[in-house]
Write a structure and sequence with these properties.
The chain is mainly α. Helix content is 68%, strand content 0%.
Length: 914
């Protein structure tokens, strides 16, 4: 009834001035509203908020069937009755109002049903259809549930029965496996007892040998100790190897003692890992839910097996002790067979990685202790004081630094310790390499993996090969001790740096002593990385030695160039520098790395020599001036510096022939720099001498060689230019070359003589016109030239007389052949026998001089000096081509036919010589 009242009230039209906002609140209750109206109380209670009647509700407007108008006030605002106030009218009036509202709502419902009756009928038809379909689906689901229940009942019982049988079968398999392993255990245990008894007999025989007498009660079954030491070491090794293998088969964790393993529970001792894997595989095959270590029967839990665990533990301890003793014995005696047997036993015990790691630690620690002891001044001082105190009445106090009196004793003790250190390091190194060699040779027969790989791949193993570990530790310790010794002790620093060569030779002896047992090589062509690591550890003392070596070299250079231009360096200074460099290189020659470092110091020193010499060398015009009568100060200075550079260059160049290419490559650039500075002095001076000589000889063309015999009567002396040439040669010899070392001057003189002869012969061959008187004058000049050149040579060849010019060679023959050429008949000029010793070009020049044909330089407008210089700068073929062009041009000149024919003959002979 309350719902109907609410519906009627909602359906009241707005035209009746009713406030409908109360029906729009979310908490509206029709029953409470009806009771409030009947009792005259406000609804909703004052505590409940009512939406504002101004805006209204779109839902309310839709329900009332009236559109909501914008901009207009709702009619409810004009109502004089508010639902929030108590009702003031009679109950009958209210009921009549409700009746009217109900009627109005009924009309609206009928209107809605009439308007939408087709849709309502369609919804009703569809509902009836889907209800039938849902009923059929529900029936199908009931049938499926019934089938599943029946199928489950047919499968579940057989499955439970089968599962029970599988579980029973698995338990039988576990029991069978346990019995099999127990049987295998007793077989191994009996074998271990036999091996332990045999090992005990070996120990008993050895103990009798050490005691010197036997106990008759223990004589039965014992092995003679003498026979053991001679014959049965290998057999004992085999017994230990078999025992180790047997012990390993009895347990899976051999690195753990048997007592500790027994406390670990199931699977920690006497459990074969392959059996557990088989159990897991069988469990998966039979469909068991649990397998492996949870159902695996540990033999430790079997009482009859547990009784033998102490025996196995004791035997394992004995075998381990024997293995360690065999390893020590094999390394001490370097017996690879004993070492191989012990390592095989350690591998069988599965303790090989730990054993190898322990051995390497012991060897490296021993080497480190001995290195530290060798540089320990405190223990050295105590040792020296103990020796001194035995011969003296008083005891001196301990000193960490020796005094001037005890310094020789400390030095002798230090070198004795270092020599002992080298021997001990050699022993340790050979042991390490022997161990690594045996580890690399021994392999697992099943997998083929070497013991070295096994030792390096284990969880507790080496990080690198034993040899690499040893060298790295040795180098690190040696470097640290050398650094600390040089830093903390002045005595050690001075003794080992000054005696670094002796220290280095000790390490060379170390490398030589281990070369037969290791793969280390230390030669000039190749140095093994291990040797470089060790020698690099001595870099502290090597640096001090190289610093002192460089200081000695620089002091020698500074001493030579100390006075500068006042007293420039001379030949003796150059010899002293070269001798010091030779001594430094020869001292370090035995070590390829040290000699390279010294060579770098030498290169620096030679650069310093070149720089200082360059600063002293004078490049002024007076340094090459030959005006005379004395040498200029600049020439004297350059001569002294050049002598110093010359001897430095020659001595060092000879030295480089005795050193390998690597050392020469370091020093040769410095030698080349010195040679360059030397050439900067020599080349300009020699060029000036040649130019001056050429200028004097070119004056031959100023001599009148076409005078008659009457005009030359009484004038048979040499020409003036020849006298000037003799004076110039004497000036060069006495004033210029005397400033240089005698060896330098002696090397220049033959070249100067050859140049003088070549230049004179070329100028004499083109001197024209030439008469008989002129020929005689040239002959006289040639004689004077021979005398001048002989004097030039004799004084610089230590007074050797006779045959000095003959030593010049072809040039002297050319000068001697020039004299008869002047007096040959024209017909004989084309004969190569008559002109032997002369270049064809000189003969061609003389033919052209006799002929009316002008010489080549005349055709081109050159001076005689320019033509001679052109010949010196060009090849003979180019000179022949120049003459051929002249002959072709004067081919038809009258009176020149004979000479042209002679010239062509000489040209053909010259081309034939080519």
């Amino acid at each position: 009834m309350g719902a109907c009242i609410a519906y009627v009230i909602i359906a009241v039209p707005c035209g009746r001035n009713q406030d409908h906002s109360v029906f729009a609140i979310p908490e509206f209750d029709a029953s409470e509203y009806a009771n409030a109206v009947l009792s005259g109380e406000p609804y909703p209670p004052p505590s409940t908020a009512i939406p504002s009647p101004v805006t209204g509700s779109s839902t309310e407007a839709h329900v009332l069937g009236q559109p909501q108008m914008q901009g207009s006030r709702p009619r409810s605002m004009l109502s004089t009755l508010s639902v929030l106030e108590p009702a003031r009218e009679d109950i009958s009036v209210a009921i009549s109002k409700l009746d009217l509202g109900i009627e109005d709502a009924s009309k609206q419902i009928k209107a809605l049903v009439t308007a939408h009756h087709e849709d309502l009928l369609l919804y009703s038809s569809n509902t009836r259809h889907w209800s039938g379909l849902l009923a059929s689906v529900r029936q199908g689901l009931d049938d499926v549930e019934l089938s599943i229940h029946q199928l489950r009942r047919k499968i579940r019982l057989p499955y439970e029965s089968l599962q029970m049988q599988v579980t029973r079968l698995q338990r039988i398999h576990y029991a069978n496996n346990a019995l099999r392993r127990i049987g295998r255990f007793f077989v191994l245990e009996k074998r271990l007892e036999t091996l332990a008894e045999e090992l005990a007999r070996y120990e008993l025989g050895a103990s009798w040998t050490s005691e010197g007498e036997r106990d008759p009660s223990r004589d039965a079954g014992a092995i003679d100790g003498k026979r053991l030491s001679a014959e049965s070491h290998e057999e004992k090794g085999r017994v230990i190897t078999k025992a180790a293998l047997t012990i390993t088969e009895l347990g899976t964790f051999p690195a753990v003692s048997f007592e500790v393993a027994a406390d670990l529970g199931a699977g920690a001792l006497l459990d074969d890992g392959s059996d557990i894997e088989d159990d897991q595989r069988d469990a998966c095959q039979y469909g068991a839910t649990t397998a492996g270590r949870f159902n695996h029967v540990p033999l430790c839990s079997v009482n009859i097996v547990a009784a033998y665990i102490p025996f196995i533990s004791d035997t394992r301890a004995k075998v381990t002790k024997e293995v360690e003793a065999m390893v020590i014995q094999g390394l001490t005696a370097l017996d690879q067979s004993v070492l191989a047997s012990s390592l095989q036993a350690a591998y069988n015990l599965q303790m090989l990685p730990q054993l190898v790691a322990g051995l390497m630690k012991d060897l490296t620690d021993a080497a480190e202790r001995r290195i530290r002891n060798a540089f320990d001044l405190l223990s050295m001082s105590k040792e020296i004081i103990a020796k001194v105190s035995q011969s003296q009445l008083y005891k001196s106090r301990v000193r960490t630094e020796p005094t001037s009196v005890t310094a020789p004793q400390f030095a002798a003790a230090l070198w004795a310790r270092l020599e002992s250190l080298i021997e001990q390091m050699s022993g340790c190194c050979v042991k390490v390499y022997t161990l690594e060699k045996v580890l690399n040779l021994k392999r697992d027969p099943a997998t083929g993996v070497s013991f070295l790989d096994v030792s390096m791949k284990a969880r507790v193993s080496l990080e690198n090969k034993p040899s690499s570990t040893f060298w790295a530790s040795l180098g690190m310790t040696l470097e640290k001790c050398c650094w600390d010794a040089a830093k903390s002790s002045t005595f050690l620093q001075q003794t080992l740096s000054s005696g670094y060569l002796r220290l280095l030779r000790l390490f060379h002896e170390f490398f030589a002593s281990i070369a037969l047992h290791t793969d280390t090589v230390y030669t000039e062509s190749h140095q093994s990385p291990e040797t470089v690591v060790v020698l690099r550890a001595l870099s502290t003392f090597e640096g001090i030695y190289l610093s002192r070596s460089l200081t000695r070299l620089n002091e020698a250079v500074s001493q030579a160039f100390l006075a500068g231009t006042r007293v420039p360096p001379n030949a003796n200074d150059g010899i002293a520098i070269a001798r010091l460099i030779t001594n430094e290189l020869d001292s370090a020659r035995f070590d390829p790395l040290l000699v390279r470092a010294v060579a770098k110091n030498v290169a620096t020193t030679l650069d310093n020599v070149a720089t200082k010499a360059d600063a002293l060398i004078s490049t002024e015009r007076s340094a090459v001036s030959l005006l005379g009568p004395l040498a200029t100060p600049q020439q004297v200075l350059n001569g002294q510096v050049a002598s110093c550079l010359y001897y430095s260059y020659t001595k060092l160049s000879t030295l480089m022939e005795d050193h390998p290419q690597t050392i020469s490559a370091l020093i040769q650039p410095g030698i080349n720099k010195i040679l360059t500075r030397y050439d900067c002095v020599i080349d300009p001076l020699l060029a000036a001498i040649r130019n001056e000589i050429a200028a004097v000889i070119s004056r031959i063309h100023r001599v009148d060689l076409q005078k008659s015999a009457d005009s030359m009567a009484g004038m048979t002396g040499p020409s003036l230019y020849m006298k000037d040439l003799a004076d110039k040669l004497d000036f060069v010899k006495t004033s210029i070359l005397s400033n240089f070392a005698q060896e330098i001057a002696r090397s220049w003189i033959p070249g100067i003589v050859k140049y003088v002869i070549r230049t004179f012969v070329l100028h004499a061959s083109i001197a024209s016109p030439l008469t008989e008187v002129g020929k005689l004058q040239l002959t006289t000049d040639m004689t004077e030239l021979e005398f001048a050149l002989s004097a030039f040579l004799i004084d610089n060849l230590q007074g050797k007389r006779g045959g000095s010019l003959e030593s010049i060679g072809e040039e002297y023959k050319m000068l001697r052949a020039m004299r008869p050429l002047l007096f040959l008949e024209n017909s004989h000029l084309g004969s190569s026998e008559r002109t032997a010793g002369l270049p064809p070009l000189v003969v061609l020049h003389h033919i052209l001089v006799r002929s009316p044909i002008p010489l080549p330089h005349t055709l081109h407008g050159w001076q005689e000096t320019e033509y001679v210089r052109w010949i010196e700068d060009h090849s003979p073929q180019e000179a022949y081509s120049l003459i051929e062009s002249s002959l072709n041009q004067w081919q038809h000149e009258s009176g020149a036919g004979e000479y042209i024919q002679l010239a062509w003959i000489v040209l053909r002979h010259a081309k034939g010589e080519r």
